[in-house]
Amino acid sequence: MTLRGYLGTMAATSAVSWLGWIYVLVTVDPTSTNWLGFLLFYLSLFLALTGTSAIIGFMVRFIALKHELVFRQVNDAFRQSFLFALMMVAALYLLSQNLFSWLNAAFLVIALSLLEYFLISYRKQT
Hints:
It is a single chain. The chain is mainly α. The protein contains 4 helices and no strands. Helices cover about 85% and strands about 0% of the residues.
C-alpha cells in the first residue's frame, strides 16, 4: 500500500468512526441502554481517536523527522496512537464507574509506558 493510500484509508475510516461516535452519542440514552450501547460508544470513540491521532502523529513525524524511513514513522505513529486511544477510553471508563483517581491514572500511564518500552525494545532485538 502506498503512503497516499494509507493516509486516504485512515482519513476515511477515521471520519466514519467520528460519525459513528456522534450517531451513538445522539441516539443512545445512557440511562436506559444495555452493555451494547456502551460498547458501541467506547469502540467508536477508540477507533476514531486511533485513526485521528495516527494521522496527526505521522504528519508531525514526517515534518520533524525527515531522516527516518516512512514505513517506520507510520508504524510508530500507529502504535503510539493505539496506546493513546486505549489510555483515553480506559480513563473515560474508569470515570464512568467512579473509579478514576490520580493513583489509578498514574498506574494506567505507567502500565502503558512500560508496554511502549517493551514494544520498542522488542522491535530493536528483531
